[in-house]
Amino acid sequence: xxxxxxxxxxxxxxxxxxxxxxxxxxxxxxxxxxxxxxxxxxxxxxxxxxxxxxxxxxxxxxxxxxxxxxxxxxxxxxxxxxxxxxxxxxxxxxxxxxxxxxxxxxxxxxxxxxxxxxxxxxxxxxxxxxxxxxxxxxxxxxxxxxxxxxxxxxxxxxxxxxxxxxxxxxxxxxxxxxxxxxxxxxxxxxxxxxxxx
Length: 197
Known about the structure:
Radius of gyration: 18 Å
CATH topology: Cyclic Phosphodiesterase, Chain: A
Strand order of the largest sheet: 3-1-9-10
CATH class: Alpha Beta
Order of helices and strands: EHEEHEEEHEHEEEEE
CATH superfamily: Cyclic phosphodiesterase
């Protein structure tokens, strides 16, 4: 059975900006651009029945779409760095969505995720990278930032047992509720809403 996890997708233009961060770090195995994502909840290996129950529950989530942007880069692992990542703005809606998915998984009998949710996009996995090299790499790219983008959905992805980094397969797509604000464009008719002023 493939390993399952829920995630947010990265728009193509943002992924291309992230791809410009590749290179210049000895010992880095760079993640393919098409595999960039923000993991919401790692589910792991489950049987078919549990997978169906997870999909059924995820399909009932009713949350609004929201805005994110990528900001800054860092590394995990402290004095033994094992990966380099791009940071994500701290959108309350993203944390609320992640918390709901976590509660849902626990109600289905899955163990709690032992890691604190730290939204990020993994750029590279490191093997034998020197701390000095990682510090040098990060110091030259610390002001990285992208324009905000809308997150219209979250997905259930699967991965085959490997060393990490893909390839990933989209198993299910779960749309978020479109938030219509005064003065915004009606996507269906492409006619601007009338101002109430």
